[in-house]
């Protein structure tokens, strides 16, 4: 059984289909049809809901953290121990919520289909903002698409909603909600079981290891932003899943003198502060990784584990020399991330083995990263590049160059690196290294980019890296090319 709050209503579910998304649960099981399906792939934001969960801040104060999610990519099992808020829950005692009123007064809605998603993103923005902030508003709304109104009035609504925000029913009931969430906090493995399909929700790494050993055919579910597409886009059935999002051991971030250790189930939005502090380019790329809804849901371990050749984080992590800790039963092994990827969607992971931790070395001051995509926000890379050099007296002593989108796996450019190591860092060396990239990669053409464009972009990004290190005042990193 799993338990969660639907606004303030306690829901206990056991026999639901584990493949059921929160979107369809709301619309088909509880009659809340305000949440819309626009794309079923997490691109349009019409299905946005907000999930609240217990969180202790840096001051040790216990509170509810509200986050926007794409309900079309969220399986119901991930709600275990949390609070689900949909657009119907905002109106209170006959009065519109202040974010809804702002949309009305600023003329932020036309056909209205996308409006519930915008309202829920604005609600989460308001809950996480102390004052109007244009940058935060753009970030909060980047995952919501409107085809008829235009964004100026919606951004005006965001400013109004975050300016002198009034107390609402969620504020007045916060203590009560915290108490109710504590009362339903999971204490043992939860389960949804519809007879032919099941999803297990362990609370510890040890329990996960035991369950995965017992069900080696199970699919591991973290954020679900990739896995859920198999259900919503390809109409496949997932007979057995194990949800790892309630394992606190796998959501930790520990900062050591020489490294960061990040639990594989840590949401990308939670990774931002630590990675941005150590490597600003990594932080900037996370801002462009996808929408805020996706970053609130997707995990660093999931972005590695799905072995996509166009995943944004693996090239950066490979260039930094990152390692992963793989767990199977009581056994753990540490593997260089570059050795994890073997072929297209094929990895070195053994049966019943899972990624537990990502280890990111610190102290690489010449690290830079770049993303080439058709649009700036919420888009998949055509090419993702990461460069990491060490130099002594102008001579390159170590080089790690990695790319995504250039091969069947995220991959180091070994021929390029061989040209760089031992050479003087100058334009002649860079041109030789650019030529060597043609030996490292034979990219494919697809709807994102042609093979010629990809190779030329990769070469130009190396030239760009050289220029930026020569003139560090130029701030053009993590750039999109249209």
UniProtKB/TrEMBL annotation:
<dbReference type="InterPro" id="IPR016169">
    <property type="entry name" value="FAD-bd_PCMH_sub2"/>
</dbReference>
<dbReference type="Pfam" id="PF01799">
    <property type="entry name" value="Fer2_2"/>
</dbReference>
<dbReference type="InterPro" id="IPR002888">
    <property type="entry name" value="2Fe-2S-bd"/>
</dbReference>
<dbReference type="InterPro" id="IPR016167">
    <property type="entry name" value="FAD-bd_PCMH_sub1"/>
</dbReference>
<dbReference type="GO" id="GO:0071949">
    <property type="term" value="F:FAD binding"/>
</dbReference>
<keyword id="KW-0408">Iron</keyword>
<dbReference type="InterPro" id="IPR036010">
    <property type="entry name" value="2Fe-2S_ferredoxin-like_sf"/>
</dbReference>
<dbReference type="InterPro" id="IPR002346">
    <property type="entry name" value="Mopterin_DH_FAD-bd"/>
</dbReference>
<dbReference type="InterPro" id="IPR036683">
    <property type="entry name" value="CO_DH_flav_C_dom_sf"/>
</dbReference>
<dbReference type="InterPro" id="IPR016208">
    <property type="entry name" value="Ald_Oxase/xanthine_DH-like"/>
</dbReference>
<dbReference type="InterPro" id="IPR014307">
    <property type="entry name" value="Xanthine_DH_ssu"/>
</dbReference>
<dbReference type="InterPro" id="IPR012675">
    <property type="entry name" value="Beta-grasp_dom_sf"/>
</dbReference>
<keyword id="KW-0285">Flavoprotein</keyword>
<protein>
    <submittedName>
        <fullName>Xanthine dehydrogenase small subunit</fullName>
    </submittedName>
</protein>
<dbReference type="Pfam" id="PF00941">
    <property type="entry name" value="FAD_binding_5"/>
</dbReference>
<keyword id="KW-0274">FAD</keyword>
<dbReference type="GO" id="GO:0005506">
    <property type="term" value="F:iron ion binding"/>
</dbReference>
<feature type="domain" description="FAD-binding PCMH-type">
    <location>
        <begin position="192"/>
        <end position="365"/>
    </location>
</feature>
<dbReference type="InterPro" id="IPR016166">
    <property type="entry name" value="FAD-bd_PCMH"/>
</dbReference>
<dbReference type="Pfam" id="PF00111">
    <property type="entry name" value="Fer2"/>
</dbReference>
<dbReference type="InterPro" id="IPR012175">
    <property type="entry name" value="Xanth_DH_ssu_bac"/>
</dbReference>
<dbReference type="Pfam" id="PF03450">
    <property type="entry name" value="CO_deh_flav_C"/>
</dbReference>
<keyword id="KW-0479">Metal-binding</keyword>
<dbReference type="InterPro" id="IPR006058">
    <property type="entry name" value="2Fe2S_fd_BS"/>
</dbReference>
<feature type="domain" description="2Fe-2S ferredoxin-type">
    <location>
        <begin position="1"/>
        <end position="90"/>
    </location>
</feature>
<dbReference type="InterPro" id="IPR036318">
    <property type="entry name" value="FAD-bd_PCMH-like_sf"/>
</dbReference>
<dbReference type="GO" id="GO:0004854">
    <property type="term" value="F:xanthine dehydrogenase activity"/>
</dbReference>
<keyword id="KW-0560">Oxidoreductase</keyword>
<dbReference type="InterPro" id="IPR005107">
    <property type="entry name" value="CO_DH_flav_C"/>
</dbReference>
<dbReference type="InterPro" id="IPR036884">
    <property type="entry name" value="2Fe-2S-bd_dom_sf"/>
</dbReference>
<dbReference type="InterPro" id="IPR001041">
    <property type="entry name" value="2Fe-2S_ferredoxin-type"/>
</dbReference>
<dbReference type="GO" id="GO:0051537">
    <property type="term" value="F:2 iron, 2 sulfur cluster binding"/>
</dbReference>
